[in-house]
Every structure is written in structure tokens, then in C-alpha cells.
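REQUEST ID: PR-0412
SUBMITTED BY: lab tech R.K.
PRIORITY: routine
TASK: structure prediction, single protein chain
INPUT:
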Amino acid sequence: MATADQAVLTLEPDGRVSASAHDVEAVLERYGLKRYAVLGRGARGHGASRFLTLRSDRPDFDPVAAARELAGTGAFHAVVPNLFLQLYDTTPNDTYLPYQWHIESAGEADLKLPAAWDLGRGDSSIVIAIMDNGIDIGHPDLESQVWINRDEIAGNGVDDDGNGRVDDVKGWDFGNGDADPSAEPAFDPSGIDVGFHGTFVAGLAAAATDNGEGIAGAGWRCRLMALKVGDSAGDISLSAVTTAFQYAADQGANVLNMSFGTTDATSREYFQALVDMATAADVLCVAAAGNDGADTQAFPAACVDVLAVGATTEDNLRADFSNWGSWVDVAAPGSYIWSSICRNYTIDDFSQIIYLFFFGWDGENPYMFGDGTSFASPLAAGVCGLVRARMPDLSARQVMEQVIATGDVVAYDHPIGKRVNAYRALSEPVVAVEPVEPLATAIQLGAVWPNPFDQATTITFSLAQPTTVRLKLYDGSGRLVRTLIQATLPSGRHAALWDGTGSDGRPLGSGIYFATLETPGRRAVRKIVLAR
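STATUS: complete
OUTPUT:
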């Protein structure tokens, strides 16, 4: 096929074609290009170019070579073989893709990921932190996706990057305090091993995609930062979550998924302080809305600047277990979801039977079905990863607003937000987010010195205008240990002395503490280390 001006070729009424230029005629002869057909009737007012096909009856005809040589003559605007084009609807070749209805289904309940992947497939520079009970970092569908701390040298027993973690090459185990974030057994009250949870979540967020095996991950090329917050007993403590938050912020995670939480409202302020810290570091927090099937707020999902995710079914209904309410931002598939499970340790016989008969496990390959807002959340997190890769200038808050605004409006039985639409999130104009007054213009929690300290330390802060202030101290488990200031203060610089005692005047033990400065609508946090 070619476009040419009127002087290049001579087109005979009987369909024969020739050229006056010797180099063009030589190519026509060499490839047997003796016939033509005009494409269309031509467009007026757009120059004198003709669009036509040149045809050869030779059995050994090479259209690629012919097009290349004709283009090389310089006599044509463009020459190209008659290519067969494909619809833009990316379908990866992962083995279990037919099981993943949330990627593409016959109805309207899926995330529209194939169309989104035509626009962007994430990027290895985008890191989705999985704060959970561990990941099988050697899983065949996850190993290539695991984030690597390039500033740390594996196995040398040295904290090379000076972040307080030795050999944290592939994340960290905050539950047990070591460098191995791998999954381990964790039993629910019924006796079923749920140690697969973090691995399941990670696969949904960003499993290796189009690799000819396993499943496809929503975030495709994004990387997975393993933040294990469960300990060997299967417990997830707020102290482990706190230090994992700090790690995600310090190590540059772009998205943080939290498929856990509590309905204990006393945790609201503490979780909000952690979220504020992450948001200030441009980490987008995503969290599961909870599985109580009620209008019950769960934290951290219900905190400000957290993308709270409810769960839907293949029938495009609210999953009956999904929490709901105006505080839930978006909905994503969370029922009968197929994903990866860990195989880095031996599953007990009872759990294997449950997996086989109720979760669709085949007894060999590390994949099965699962239900929960826990699994809707990483799908939304993966979409957020796609948006962050395609729109790198957007802040964490702006990405969240983009995903919310571009969702599909569905009339669920109870409010769980719009259904996430990955294609619209990547294709529609960026949502304008009103600028939020930077924290520093309202309050600024300054230096804490000395830090660490053993006898006393001074906490400094600044106020842009007179306001009510509360300066509180929490221990690593989130327990309030002392209120240093609760008063209305003038604008300017202020300081408070802490002598390492609690509200009862008794000395506190060595450990990590958090100073939280609160004013109406603002909060700031600093870590303090007491070393006696």
C-alpha cells in the first residue's frame, strides 16, 4: 500500500501500473508489482496524494522487502505492507486468566483491566507495599515482582543503608523483627491456616502478568514491597503496623495496601496519625472496608486520605459480607476471587482439605479462590499503581480522587462508592483536586532533641496562628501514655520538655514513642526513642 503524488506512477485504465523514474520502475519489476487498485475516491482539499495498493502475482513475493525498497526511492509519501491490525484489548496469556472474572467478564462487574492495559501496564518504578501477614517471596508468580532494596547488600550482616534494618533486601518482618518477610502459618479461630492471606493479596495487586503461567495482577509491571506485620503466633500488633508505616514512607512506596483493620473506634486518631505521615510522604493508602456486612466503620479504612474499598460479586451486587456506608469510597470485586497462595511451608492436613473442598485448590498448584474485602482492596491498589505510573505528576491524594471520580455509578443495596473502572481511571481527564493547605503552614512539629534520649528531651513546634493545641505521647502499641499540652496557644514557636515519664509520673521503659501534635483539622507526628 502506498501514498504518492500524481507524478510518481502511471495508472492505466486496465489496472496496469508503471513508473517513469528508473529506480521506482526497477523495484516494480523486481517484485512483479504490475497491478494497482485505488483506495477510495480521494479526499478533496487535502493535497493531491493518492492511496492505492500495488499487487504482485509472484508466489515468492515479499511485501515487507518491497515496501522497504519503494520507500527507499523517496518517491512516495509512505509505503507499507497491507498489515492486519488488532483491536486494542490486551489479553495476557496467564494460565488461570479464565478464572479471574474480575479482570474481564461477560457482564459489567469487572474492572475493565484489558482496556486499561492498552493505555498503561504500570512500571517497575511504582512500588505497591503489601502490609500483611507475609508474602511467599519465592512464589513463581511473585518472585520477579518483589521490590528489591538496592541500597542494601544481601547477607553481609550490615545495615548498609543505615535505616536500622540489617539485610532488608526484600522487605522486613515487623512482626518478628527480622529480614525475612516470608509467609508463615497463621490460624483463624476455626483452625484453618490463613497464612496465605498476604500472598493472595500480593498476587491480586501485581502478580507477574503475561508470563504464560498462573494469574494476572492488576498492577502488571508494578513491584511488591513485602511488609510482614504478623508474628509467628499469627497476631498483627499496632506496634508492628506503626513501624511498617514508617518503613513504607521512608523507602518510597507509592501505594500501601492494608487488607486488615479494626472496628475499635479508639484506634481512629492513632491510625489517622500514621496515615497523615504516609500521605505527607506521598504514599497512597488503600484499605479494606471490612467483612462485618454492616454500616460499621473500620480503621484504617475510615481514616481521611485512605481509599476505603468495599466488595462486589460477579453479579455486580454488593457482597453480603462487605461493610458499607458513606465512608466507603469505592467498590471492587471481592467475591469468588482467584489468586496465589503460599507454598514456602507445608500446609497442615486439615487446612489442605478445606482448601480442596471449599476454595477450589487442585492440591498441586499454588492458587485458589477466596472471598473478602481483603481481596477487593489490592485490586484497587493495583489500579492505583497503574494510574501512578501513567500520571506520575499526580500526588497520592490526586490519584485517589481520580480513581473515585472515574468509577462507575451502580445502585447497590447499600452505599459502597462507585465501582472501580481501571480504563476510565487511566483515560479520562485528571480530576481537579482543590489544593490542601500544606501541614507546615498551619502547624509544624519541629526537632526533637536529643533523640534518642535517656533523661529528658525537648519537643519543638510552630503555629501559624493562635489555636487550640494538644501534644500527646503514645507508645509503640498505640496506647496514650501522656498528654504534655492541652491548651490554646498563640502563634509562633513553642517547646515542651518530656522527662520520659507517663501520666502517673512513673518512668517509662525503653522503646519507641510517638509525639502527636493536634490542632483543629491538622495533625503531625514525630518518632521518639527512649533509651535508658
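NOTES: The first helix runs from residue 22 to 31.
REVIEWED BY: pending
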